[in-house]
């Protein structure tokens, strides 16, 4: 298999997206809300370790030592800047104590512009492109100082130190962004990976990211069939209440089934209620092939790649199988081969960060004789002998393979809730909300 795959790899299609997502303004607000505790921790670690002269370009008054004794993030917001990136705004309340027992509360405001770029490793990375700060006194246990001294303080902030803290704030988000391109198992020998094709697009509707799915079988990337239609993210609804809308093209689903087929996951051995003796009652030439009565087994293989078809409100899976009918174990003696073309309905749902896919039963099925060592077999007899078994077993065995689901593009520590799956012609939309999972301990 690996030799075959290595021969195929140069034929890899050009890079084009087959799925993606749009993070809406409400999703951005949720990120801002859950980022407050992290921002407070980072700012507290360094600012509380500092004396005020570190923070401000001022010389300490003789004999007194100003110390930052409390750091509280009062507000943190993320705002979209169309075609550019994001604006991060943080309002921090600093408690500053000087000997003997004087405490001031200062309001530190940080404004930073952020943009997302692709690094050489192909991961998305958030970087600061501009940062400015201001500070004012809000209350004091001393008498209120004149406005002029507070504006002097504002001019004298050590911007470099504060803006360095903003860069530190991005370490955790960037770590999580990097998890987007992790490899996720589909089966023991097959893995999926979602690769960003470019930096995200920023618009009033949200942040749009286009992804290309790649599959590896036994550690080697496989060339996926070329999409007949280039996929672009559907225009988002202007006021989506969901945090995020994921989109998957029809080609994405066909690629998944192609990869599973390449991995051999769908090669099926199907037990049959028939024996060689019961079949000999219908096909007389069976008797001369098998002197003893043996159980009949079906072995199903794909003669052409499976294909997923998406229509409004429904998904279907088209399968093109050859079923080899035989007997004997361990030496399987194949005496009949049947082409089976079938369509099964597909059910799609989401559990946590995985898409669950199941074949919901055979909708159409057509059997035709491919090869026979026992003479001609009429189509009606093929159906009588094999149709009930194929109809029941093929979806059941595929569902065992599909039962683990396939990981959706996601970043670590977040899961999907309030999920809807909407099937359109040629693509699937999954509007959902994000939920930050509590870390154990």
From TrEMBL:
SUPFAM superfamilies the record matches: Bactericidal permeability-increasing protein, BPI (SSF55394)
Any one GO MF annotation of this record: lipid binding
UniProt domain Lipid-binding serum glycoprotein C-terminal: residue ranges: 238-432
Superkingdom of this protein's organism: Eukaryota
Name recorded for this polypeptide: TENP protein
Origin species: Smutsornis africanus (Double-banded courser)
Lineage of producing organism: Eukaryota, Metazoa, Chordata, Craniata, Vertebrata
